[in-house]
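This follows on from our talk about sequence and fold. Go ahead and set the record down below:
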Amino acid sequence: MMAEAKDDDVKQTLQIFDEDEVRREFIEQCENDPAFRGKLVRKLDFKILPLLCLTYFLAFLDRGNIGNAKLGGLQTDLHMTDSQYQWSLSIFFFGYVIFELPSNLVLRRWKPSKWIAIIMFAWGAMSAIMAGVSDFGGLATMRLLLGVWEAGLFPGVVYYLSLFYPRKEFARRIGYFWSFSSLAGAFGGMVAAAITQIKSPLIREWQTLFLIEGLPNVIIAAFIWVYLPDSPETARFLDETERKYTIYRLAVDNGAADDHSFSWAQVRSVFYDWKTYPYMLIYITGTSALQGVTLFLPSIIAGLSSGFSTWVSQLLTTPAYILALLATILATWSSDKYLERSYHLIVINLFGMAGFLMLMYVDSSNVGVNYVGAMIVTASVYANVPVKVAWFNNNFGGLTRRAVASAAIVSVGTIGGAIGGQIYYDKPKYFNGNRIALICLGAQSVLVLIVRFILVRENKRRDALTIEQAELEVEKLGGRELAGDRVPAFRYIL
């Protein structure tokens, strides 16, 4: 019923285009007014992105602070072995894998503002409660629950932003959102370094860290509930002209794949689509390298020199994350400007592989060069994410298919997070961990080229179809609602 009500809103708003002459005049007026279009995009950015970016900033602090907590005495106080600590990292991602798809289905059929607020409140509570654990079992349980509640945020926001932005603007917005994860890494090190200076006979440093970084989520969740718009149709900050044009440009961008309906057949159709599975592998390989670097960066830097104290190691993560933020913004800006994804991924990965080779083969005595290598790999694995996410989101048409595909790909791809938590086991240089991460980026690059080649061939095949052949293909797929991006009039982003 909720989905039907939302679809009725869309249909009612689109009735403004029933008269062809009125529509043409309206479109021409908006398209020929750069000031209007610029004002609209800035308004969307200002009303939507700050809340989402702050949400992800806090979420990433919560998931990644265990690395800083380790340096603050977590592993010693809980009497954990190295293996148990690694499993406490990896178990977080099992909750992710299981609950991302169900969460996106709730988001698709309910109000995004309410669901995002609920899950944010819950993961903030889990993070704060983690300060009270006393053994490995308690820590593992809370990390699992943290993953369960955080699972819906990233794929949910990927889908949510596609409700407001066309494909040529999408990568930059995902880039802005994702860049706050690297900002969290930068400030996470600084906050952790400051917290480790707090001494108390009642509470340990790592417990203070979990409390301070968990509780703000509970507060921000209330703002999400009240202020985040659910769709262009219900966004109170848009006037009627802005609302009309926002809906129009999304409809034009989606073309023949523009569909707002919901059915379980549409959900199932994602898993019959060949693209789903190579995109999952692309995500797994990238996430394995990303999470390995994210979870172990303080330890990797600490291993560069015996002279680095815990305080220094945490502070030295900050420049690496600042570089990652800048690389992310630059990569997504270029990707949107040229409306190209795959070659951007290849270039990003080449930098990352060069950085891993530096960490592996440059002599340990050359601390400066090794540190530069650590900065390069951090920038690369972070810039990789929004480009690949924009790529697969751009290439699934129809709201339901896009919501399901986003969640399914990120969900299965997040298995890479569990892998990443296990690969850095050979301290202090972590040669094997860096080698595995290097192989992951190489494998991802090969997969990207294969998918690009297939999509190029498919676009050319569709160009050659007659109208009758195209209509026959749609019929075989069960109609336009089920076809989505498989409608022959749709063209894939490369």
Remarks:
- The chain has a mean pLDDT of 84.
- DSSP finds 22 helices and no strands in the chain.
- The radius of gyration is 23 Å.
- The CA atoms of residues 194 and 363 lie 32 Å apart.
